[in-house]
Design a protein that fits this description.
Strand content: 25-35%
Helix content: 25-40%
Number of helices: 9
Distance between the termini: 33 Å
Shape: globular
Order of helices and strands: HEEEEEEEEHEHHEEEHEEEHHEEHEEH
Length: 367
């Protein structure tokens, strides 16, 4: 039987299982917020009025290589540049994502030309299902990846430059998009948030009445990459690329841009991508609705909110007379934007003691 957050995390435990504060740090202090939402295709970062993307691709290199980032005992080429040379790797698993998070946060700080002075707040995201499972472990005082990640991100070095934050918030991917939607829309009934990423598809069912996530699930290997391998790759072979081996990040780049270069010719693949995506999205919605019926029974929803990089392909293509459908602007940044909103709410608590969890949006008690 599904347990909602208020059942899983009694209010007295507050936010401590998934956020860490340095000694003496006061909530409500006016600090800068730096957001990094690392996924299997890219890291999305936000800082004040700036934002950017860094491809989730890296390659070990010599220590003195131009443009490299030293992390631990090794040096790495990170991002789009890593795609240009052989021997590059991309993030494949949650475990690898956890290990590489500090490196990508350091790269994003460099791209943003931002400096953390120990008073700033770092906000990061993890796939919903992993976040929930690890938060339950933290609640039971068992070893968990969230505590390890927050400790790793509180203080680390990239390129021999020390980065230190006063606090780290770890939020579930899926919640961010819903929070971004609610920033500009009235909350009515239940909202089904669908985060279509590169590797994962995450759905979260949010209750406006309860102000919390009722249920959710992460589908691994069901994101845009599945469509690319199953449907787009055969088309590329037919167009003369049979001898080329495409990495998942390269396929994602082709889908995102809609073009591929062949010699001096720039080939437009947008008609083919549009065609193959129709079947993919139809099957995806069937999968999600089927899972909701199996696990949530009679729970209904009034609004579907699409976000994540894959949601760009749905623009002007999804309609319904039964529910309200929203495709968020800049969908790949929706989680990051929502994370920042949630962090701002947490930091605005001032001297009040917050006894609500991240998944719950219920007001904190004033006593």
């Amino acid at each position: 039987m599904h347990r909602n957050v208020s059942e899983t995390f009694p209010k007295r435990f507050g936010v401590t299982p998934f956020s860490i504060y340095t000694k003496g740090q006061k909530r409500g202090a006016k600090v800068s917020i730096f957001v990094v939402d690392l996924g299997f295709s890219s890291a999305k970062w936000l800082h004040e009025t700036s934002q950017g993307l860094v491809a989730s691709c890296y390659r070990k290199t010599k220590e003195d290589s131009s443009g490299s980032y030293k992390f631990g005992e090794d040096s790495y080429i990170v991002g789009e540049r890593a795609l240009l040379e052989t021997g590059s790797h991309y993030i494949r698993t949650v475990e690898e994502l956890l290990d590489m998070y500090p490196l990508f946060v350091g790269v994003c700080l460099n791209k943003a030309d931002a400096y953390c002075n120990g008073k700033d707040t770092l906000v990061v995201g993890l796939p919903y299902e992993h976040w929930k499972a690890e938060t339950e472990k933290a609640y039971k005082r068992k070893p968990n990846s969230l505590t390890r990640l927050t400790n790793d991100l509180m203080s680390f070095e990239v390129n021999s430059k020390a980065h230190q934050f006063s606090q780290v918030f770890v939020y579930p991917q899926g919640l961010g998009g819903v929070k971004a939607y609610l920033a500009n829309n009235e909350c009515k009934g239940n909202i089904l948030g669908i985060d279509i990423g590169f590797n994962t598809v995450i759905y979260t069912l949010y209750s406006c009445e309860e102000k919390e996530i009722l249920t959710g699930k992460t589908f691994y290997k069901k994101g845009i990459h599945e469509m690319a391998v199953s449907n787009l790759l055969p088309i590329l072979r037919e167009k003369g690329f049979s001898g080329k081996s495409f990495t998942p990040i390269e396929l994602n780049h082709v889908i995102r841009t809609g073009f591929i270069q062949s010699g001096f010719d720039k080939i437009d693949l947008t008609p083919e991508i549009r065609e193959v995506s129709e079947g993919y999205f139809a099957n995806l919605l069937q999968l999600i609705i089927g899972d909701l019926k199996a696990h949530s029974g009679v729970i209904t929803f009034d609004t579907i909110v699409f976000f994540g990089g894959g949601a760009r392909m749905l623009t002007n293509r999804v309609k319904s007379d039964k529910v309200k459908i929203e495709i968020l602007p800049q969908p790949e940044f929706a989680n990051a934007l929502g994370f920042r909103i949630k962090a701002q709410e947490m930091l605005n608590l001032s001297s009040k003691t917050c006894q609500s969890s991240v998944e719950s949006e219920k007001p904190c008690s004033s006593g």
